[in-house]
Amino acid sequence: MRTAVVTGAAQGVGFATAALLGRKGYQVLMTDLQPLDGPLARLQAEGLKVAAICGDVTSEAFAHDLAARVAADYGAADVLVNNAGISLISPAEETSLAQWQKVMAINLQGPFLLSQALGKQMLARKSGNIVNVASVAGLGGVIHRSAYNASKHGLIGLTRTLAAEWGGRGVRVNAVCPGWIKTEMDVADQGSGAYGDEDIINRVPMARFARPEDVAAGIAFLAQEDSFVNGVSLPVDGGWTADNSWDALRINTRGG
Ligand SMILES: NC(=O)c1ccc[n+]([C@@H]2O[C@H](COP(=O)([O-])OP(=O)(O)OC[C@H]3O[C@@H](n4cnc5c(N)ncnc54)[C@H](O)[C@@H]3O)[C@@H](O)[C@H]2O)c1
User: What is the span of the domain harbouring residue 105?
Assistant: First the structure.
């Protein structure tokens, strides 16, 4: 049975990914800072093979604990999904060092530490792959998101470098770049009054938000066995990054 570790699995994209990989027959180890009893029970009730371990992805000690648990229970993970992340909407000139460091620690240091800890086991077995959850914010600038965007650009850089460094040793590393997704992150971001549903819907050629399940499907595609896909950053954005049209042109072209 193939094994997948999914971070940030208590809700949103991480939960949808744990559910999808579980339904595809993976043994899934869910991990999150938040308690996982509820999400775990929901997936167990479906008959899926899931387990859970709580911890903070920014902690090197947790990365070691997680690797020890994976080694003891499964030998090595076949798939690591670095999904845990936080958002920050703040003008660059007002972003504090503490805010910057927190975003970098969770969104970039965490994936590095876990890729290193679980990647070593994959390298020893000469098989496995990692999927990092970046963002369209890793492919271009978005106003008032200097720390978040820099962290996601960094995550894409890390993806490419690990793909180059480990590809020849049996370990592939890829990323997904979702557009705006309807999750609790979006609810919190919209709560700040920074944007509304219409702003996103108008910007996306497919005229809707991403669903957590859309992103999970992209992750599952990249994670599949016997693939030659390595080092890519796959937009799962309904065409957002492909489209340089101005808003009125896009909206008028949709018709009624
Ligand atoms: N929501 C969006 O519009 C959007 C768009 C593009 C990319 N993303 C990315 O997708 C990923 C998932 O986002 P989501 O929308 O599901 O967010 P979410 O806030 O719903 O879920 C994130 C999860 O990560 C966990 N987490 C946060 N800090 C952690 C830490 N230090 N250690 C362990 N777990 C931690 C949270 O507890 C939470 O369960 C993130 O990396 C996010 O940047 C989100």
Answer: 3-180+208-238
